[in-house]
Amino acid sequence: MEIRLIDTNMNTLSRRRFLQIMDSLAACLPASSLAGNALAEAGLGSVASSRGLLYGSVVRGTSLMNDPTYAAVFARECRLVVSALEMQWRGVSPTPTSTNFSRADAVHAWASKHDFKFRGHALVWHGQVPTWFAEVPDGDAAIRALRDHVHAMCSHFAGRIHSWDVVNEAIQMGDRVDGLRDTVFLEKIGPDYLDIAFRTAREADGQALLTLNEFGLEYHDGDGRRRRRAMLDIVDGFRRRNTPIDAIGIQSHLATDYNWKLDDRSLADFLKEISDRGLKIMVTELDVVDRGSPSDIPTRDAEVASLYRRYLDVVLDNRATIGVVTWGLTDKDSWITRGDRPEFRRSDGLSARPLPLDDRFRRKPAYDAIAEAFRAAPLR
Ligand code: XIL
User: Fold this and answer.
1) Cis omega (within 30 of 0) for bond into 122
2) What CATH number does the domain containing 193 carry?
3) Would you say residue 17 lies in a domain?
4) Residue 374 C-alpha to ligand 1 middle, in angstroms?
5) Residue 356 C-alpha to ligand 1 middle, in angstroms?
6) Which among 101, 255, 290, 331 has most CB atoms closer than 10 A?
7) Is the pLDDT of residue 111 over 60?
8) Is 337 inside any structural domain?
């Protein structure tokens, strides 16, 4: 039997036109009905796990609790949940003597209900220090405060957490030969703050993967090369001093207009330097800034997707890479789209399309690219 699709003028529709119409109809539906339909399909997390890999995303705890569609899509796509906002030191300890884990606990409860792994970002990060920390009287008080914080967080989640970003963004190429960023931790404690944080984390939790998380390691320009060197020097220093560390987190904020400085070979060599030192690798904050790509959405999405695929092929080829985290799941749920960083804005004024799902939870070419990279990855 032949089924013919006809339009209002009784013209036969091509399959392509039919799909276009269905797509625009779908765009008019409430997102919840779309997510409901798509729920039956396996998500990125299950594709990843079929290759022994982990996939997940950073989550917004409030959306997880209040937006059933968001939560359903999250549950479908992920196997790992990253809590960031809810983990911020300044939020957990607004005063030196208070700790409030309730927001992080709520995300953890959701993760364990779904049998997902849980990842904490970040224990020590200059971007989220409580104001009182800058006012501690001296170095000893700063060490005590840092240790108390790391200990409190790690022991609270001990045995219930997959991994921690123990220190985030410790590197910034400036005047120092070691490449350490000039932060309040460096100022008050000195370079030892890194060892202190990792040792304290291990004392409090013998199981969680302790990660040093960093950006700017992805590219092969002068800055990227120096950052890679600084990272390996930190790891080598840890090894000499017997400071525990399990993994390097490569943030992986990519951009289509930086493709010229992505060099597959040197990236693979750098990752091998890490795995040769016995460390695991995680892609921890993957997304793609599309500011350098055209306005036309199919072309733009194709460029973003091909960068996802190219990058993941290199990173997943190293068997020390255990998993991939995207920095959000949907385009509207991204720091790139929110526009807090002017350098991410598009000159045509259109909103960015950096993540695997669009702002109505529909899968994009980037989604397929990630899934295909997982499928092509060597089995762990
Ligand atoms: C971003 C968050 O996504 C935003 O919501 C926040 O306003 C700024 O920080 N590197 C990191 C992340 O380690 O914590 C940052 O996340 C993105 C860059």
Assistant:
1) yes
2) 3.20.20.80
3) no
4) 25
5) 18
6) 290
7) yes
8) yes
pLDDT single digits (tens) 186-231 = 999 999 999 999 999 999 999 999 999 999 999 999 999 999 999 9
Per the CB < 8 A criterion, the answer to whether 270 and 220 are in contact is no
Number of domains the chain contains: 1
Which alpha helices (DSSP H) does the chain contain, by range?
A: 15-28, 31-38, 44-49, 61-66, 68-77, 89-92, 102-113, 139-157, 184-189, 193-204, 222-240, 264-276, 297-317, 335-338, 365-376
Q: Which domain holds residue 80?
A: 31-376
The ligand 1 atom at the shortest distance from the C-alpha of residue 335 is 3
Q: Confirm if 374 and 47 have CB atoms less than 8 A apart.
A: yes
CA of 358 relative to ligand 1 center, distance in Å: 20
Full DSSP string of 89-136: HHHH-SSTT----HHHHHHHHHHHHTT-EEEEEEEEEGGG--GGGGG-
Tell me, what amino acid is at 26?
Answer: A
Name beta bridge partners: 120.
83, 164
User: Is 14 contained in some domain?
Assistant: no
Whose alpha carbon is nearest atom 3 of ligand 1? 335
Protein residues with CB under 6 Å of any ligand 1 atom: 84, 168, 215, 251, 285, 335, 340
Nearest CA to ligand 1 atom 2: 335
- In one letter, which amino acid is 332? K
How far is CA 8 from its chain centroid? 47
Whole-model pTM?
Answer: 0.90
